[in-house]
Amino acid sequence: MTSDPRTVKENEPIMIARVWRARTTGTAATSRYQQVFESEVMHDLRGLPGFRGAYLLARHGAEAMELTTVTLFDSLDTIKAFAGADHTRERVTPPARATLLDSDPHVLHFDVLVHTLVR
User: 101 to each of 21, 69, 88, how far by Cα in Å?
Assistant: First the structure.
């Protein structure tokens, strides 16, 4: 195992995490959203300079499946290139929207202060 610890230098974040939340009606709808995420969202992101990675997280909630996406970018400019001028709003395609019960229209952005990979 090796680790790759990175920390903030000179008060600048390593990268920016974009966090968005949504819900589906259950595991079948979550699987459909995952397919859209992998085929559409990741396709768009992989071609974007400054894109650093993504996570699609899911958990069983009391009334629905809860989804959280965490996408990682080099800068706010890179996020704007992906999300558009109003980068604090969600970016959801019609095929993705069709799989969702609901979603948070607001996206949160966090400075990544420490990033560690363990291999």
Answer: 11, 16, 21
**Distance between CA 63 and CA 57 in Å, rounded?**
17
pTM of the model: 0.86
**Buried (b) or exposed (e) across 59-76, using 16+ Cβ within 10 A?**
eeeeebbbbebbbbbbee
Q: How far is CA 65 from CA 13, 19, 36, 115, in A?
A: 32, 17, 16, 28
Tell me the pLDDT tens digit for each residue of 16-53. 999 999 999 999 999 999 999 999 999 989 999 999 99
> Coil, helix or strand for 63?
coil
